Amino acid sequence: MLCREDLIAGFIESTDAEAVVIALSPKSLLATNRFICEVCNKGFKREQNLQLHRRGHNLPWKLKQKNPKEACRKVYVCPEPTCVHHDPSRALGDLTGIKKHYSRKHGEKKWKCDKCSKRYAVPSDLKAHSKICGTREYRCDCGTLFSRYYYYYYYYYYYYY
């Protein structure tokens, strides 16, 4: 559930009659465990998970059902004014996409590769990088190291031919 303070400009009707443009604040895009149990203060990423958790406290709970009347397409814009995705015509189509975009492009890179010290803002990016880090190395006679053959090939022919 979005709080009023989570929205930058609220809901803005777009020029596309079938889509609603949503602008979320940077704080809400970077938030984890936004839904907090009022009994034990445990946090959850999704409201449905909180509702299921509340059953353990014997509290009233009800899962939200989608209302077909509210079934409109939503697109999300980046809150960063200089970003290309700030423009509603370049908005992203889902909440996960805008959260990952904001973290990758505008957020802090918290996760670091143990092998090469490269940093990532999204844990899944580090996981993907870790699978290939150090496995493909192309070394020039001068000692310069390349992760891709193309870069090695280009370097070699640029400097040695």
UniProtKB/TrEMBL annotation:
A Pfam family assignment: zf-C2H2_jaz
Keywords: Metal-binding, Repeat, Transcription, Transcription regulation, Zinc, Zinc-finger
Annotated Gene3D superfamilies: Classic Zinc Finger
Occurrences of domain C2H2-type (ranges): 35-57
A single MF term (Gene Ontology): DNA-binding transcription factor activity
InterPro entries attached to this UniProt entry: C2CH-3rd_BIRD-IDD (IPR055187), C2H2-2nd_BIRD-IDD (IPR055186), IDD1-16 (IPR031140), Znf_C2H2_jaz (IPR022755), Znf_C2H2_sf (IPR036236), Znf_C2H2_type (IPR013087)
GO cellular component terms attached to this protein's record: nucleus
Record-given protein name: C2H2-type domain-containing protein
